[in-house]
C-alpha cells in the first residue's frame, strides 16, 4: 500500500476552508439582501455582484485543492482518484461559467450537476478491500459517504424546485463533499504501520 505525501493533508484541509470562507466573505460583501437560506452559493459568483470575485476565487482554489489531493491520494483506487480530480475540474469550470445575474443557465446547471455527481461517487469508487487499507478507504465507510452525499444532492435539487431552503441544502452537501477528502487523507496518514501501511 503506497503512502500519502503530507502535502495532501494541506490541500485536502484547505478545500473546505476556501469554500466556506469564500461564501461567508462573498455574502458579507453582497450585503443584507442576500439570503443564505434560500439562495445558492453560485449566486454569489454571478457577474456584477459585489463579492463575485471572492466566490470565483474560492471555486478556483477548491478545484486546485481537489486536483492536488487526487494526485497525492495514492492508496485510493484509480477510479476514485479520477472522480475526485473530475470534481476539481468541475469546480474550475463552475468558476469560468458563472450563473447569470438574473435567470437560469443550462451550462452552469449542467456543470454543477456533474460536480455533485462525481464528488458523491468518488468515495465508493476509491474504496479498496483488505485489512491493511485505511478505514476511510474501506468499502463500508466509503459507501456510507457516497450515500449521504447522494441524499444531500437530492435534497438540494428538491429544495431548488420548492424555492425553500436551497441555500442550506447546498451548503450542507458541499461542506461534506469538501471535508471528506481531508478525512480520507487523515485516515491514510494515521494508518498503523503494524497493519502493513506506510504513512
Sum this structure up briefly.
The protein is mostly helical and 199 residues long. It has 7 helices and no strands.
Description:
The protein is an all-alpha fold and 199 residues long. 69% of the residues lie in helices and 0% in strands. α1 runs antiparallel to α3 (52-72), α1 packs antiparallel against α7 (166-189) and α4 packs antiparallel against α5. The longest helix has 24 residues, at 7-30. The radius of gyration is 17 Å and the shape is globular. The model is unreliable at 192-199 (pLDDT under 50).
Q: Please write the string of helix (H) and strand (E) elements.
A: HHHHHHH
Give the terminus-to-terminus CA distance. 9 Å
Count of strand segments: 0
Largest sheet: none
Low-pLDDT ranges: 192-199
Based on CA atoms alone, the radius of gyration comes out at: 17 Å
Shape estimate: globular
Oligomeric state, counting identical vs distinct chains: single chain
Helix share bin: 55-70%
The fraction of residues assigned to DSSP E strands is under 5%
Whole-number mean pLDDT:
91
Total number of helical segments? 7
SS-based class: mainly alpha
Q: How are the elements arranged and paired?
A:
Layout: H1 7-30, H2 41-44, H3 52-72, H4 78-96, H5 106-126, H6 139-162, H7 166-189
Helix pairs in contact: 1-3, 1-7, 3-4, 4-5, 5-6, 5-7, 6-7
Q: Main attributes?
A:
199 residues; 0% strand; mainly alpha
Amino acid at each position: 500500500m503506497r503512502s500519502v505525501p503530507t502535502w495532501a493533508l494541506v490541500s485536502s484541509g484547505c478545500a473546505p476552508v476556501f469554500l466556506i470562507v469564500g461564501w461567508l466573505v462573498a455574502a458579507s460583501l453582497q450585503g443584507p439582501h442576500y439570503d443564505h437560506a434560500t439562495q445558492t452559493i453560485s449566486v454569489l459568483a454571478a457577474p456584477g455582484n459585489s463579492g463575485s470575485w471572492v466566490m470565483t476565487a474560492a471555486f478556483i482554489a477548491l478545484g486546485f485543492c481537489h486536483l492536488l489531493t487526487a494526485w497525492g491520494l495514492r492508496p485510493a483506487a484509480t477510479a476514485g482518484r479520477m472522480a475526485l480530480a473530475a470534481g476539481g475540474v468541475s469546480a474550475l469550470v463552475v468558476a469560468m461559467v458563472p450563473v447569470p445575474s438574473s435567470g437560469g443557465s443550462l451550462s452552469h446547471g449542467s456543470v454543477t450537476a456533474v460536480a455533485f455527481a462525481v464528488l458523491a461517487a468518488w468515495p465508493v469508487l476509491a474504496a479498496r478491500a483488505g485489512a491493511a487499507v485505511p478505514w476511510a478507504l474501506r468499502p463500508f465507510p466509503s459507501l456510507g459517504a457516497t450515500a449521504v452525499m447522494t441524499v444531500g444532492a437530492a435534497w438540494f435539487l428538491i429544495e431548488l424546485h420548492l424555492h425553500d431552503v436551497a441555500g442550506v441544502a447546498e451548503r450542507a452537501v458541499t461542506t461534506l463533499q469538501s471535508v471528506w477528502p481531508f478525512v480520507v487523507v487523515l485516515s491514510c496518514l494515521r494508518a498503523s504501520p503494524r497493519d502493513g501501511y506506510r504513512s
